[in-house]
Design a protein that fits this description.
Blueprint: H1 2-39, H2 59-66, H3 68-102, H4 105-116, H5 123-134, H6 139-146, H7 159-169, H8 171-183, H9 187-195, H10 200-211, H11 213-229, H12 232-237, H13 249-259, H14 263-287, H15 292-296
Helix pairs in contact: 1-14, 2-14, 3-7, 3-8, 3-11, 5-7, 8-11, 9-10, 11-14, 13-14
Length: about 300
């Protein structure tokens, strides 16, 4: 804050802070408070609002735990989001390490550009491209048929297809926090460990991964939050032949808001999901033993 006032002066710095505070109040705080208030109110007709039936209640929250189907979908969504996070970490860690510690000059620039360019396209279009690749007449089936490995197209839908679509959708949110953390690692430490005869796995386990803990925590948090709150990716990938009928929890929330018109129940379900996501954030910070200051760096 002192840097802001020193750079822009007291009037300029105060104007910037006031604008940011107003933006946060109008576009973040007030809408969230409105949704919180809705989640603790019953869904009533307009004429009944403010009447004796319009009271504070936990019914919208308890409905989640008393509905076996919704409760099952909720935990399946959390488990699937954890799986997406783990798969993203396994896929992105070698890429981020190569970019940060091994790639140099034009090669590093080319690889980074190749990662970023596909994400100039809308998420829905990127997901739909995987739908086309895995469809009955898609690239995978055409190649397998052309090689004579199969006699008829395979139904490639299912949980695996959803995982592929989601890992690809959020891969950059894992790669760049890892890259940012690994880039600051002194390569002399790695060379010293190699000179002392340490195998590659031990170098990563004892030197690289401990140094990358803040990046791993940030990448896991961002990927998990996005995966748990996504709607478009599972909606599209579940439409593949052989796809799973299991719904994502956000699809239920969407149905309450836009199909059923029950904003109260939808808000309660959304905040239940948010609460568990915040617990995940706290767990990641505790597991990797990082604080907000470490993550900010």
């Amino acid at each position: 804050m002192s840097e802001l006032f020193r750079r822009f002066g007291r009037p300029g710095g105060g104007s910037i802070l006031a604008t940011a505070a107003l933006w946060a109040l109008l576009l973040v705080v007030l809408p969230q408070l409105t949704m919180v208030e809705l989640s603790f109110r019953p869904n009533l007709p307009a004429v009944a609002r403010g009447g004796p039936e319009d009271v504070w209640t936990l019914a919208n929250y308890t409905a989640l735990w008393t509905n076996p189907l919704h409760r099952t979908i909720f935990w399946q969504t959390i488990w699937s989001s954890l799986l997406v996070t783990v798969l993203s970490l396994l896929v992105c860690y070698p890429v981020a390490y190569h970019l940060a510690q091994e790639a140099r000059g034009d090669r590093a620039l080319l690889l980074a550009t190749a990662l970023v360019i596909p994400f100039w396209v809308n998420e829905i279009l990127r997901t739909f491209s995987w739908f086309l690749i895995l469809s009955r007449n898609g690239l995978v089936n055409r190649v397998l048929l052309g090689l004579g490995l199969i006699e008829e197209p395979l139904a490639l839908g299912g949980v695996g297809a959803v995982m592929i679509g989601m890992v690809y959708a959020y891969v950059l949110f894992m790669i760049f926090p890892l890259y940012n953390a690994l880039e600051s690692l002194d390569r002399n430490q790695i060379e010293a460990a190699r000179d002392l005869g340490a195998p590659t796995w031990r170098i990563h386990w004892r030197i690289v991964i401990p140094h990358a803990k803040p990046g791993i925590a940030v990448g896991c948090v961002m990927t998990f939050m996005l995966a748990a709150g996504t709607f478009a990716v599972p909606q599209i990938m579940q439409s593949l032949p052989g796809g799973t009928n299991a719904r994502w929890f956000t699809q239920i929330i969407y149905s309450y808001f836009f199909d059923g018109g029950d904003w109260n129940r939808g808000a309660a379900y959304a905040f239940a999901l948010l609460a568990l996501c915040l617990l995940f954030v706290a767990a990641m910070m505790r597991i990797f033993r990082v604080g907000l200051a470490d993550i900010a760096k």
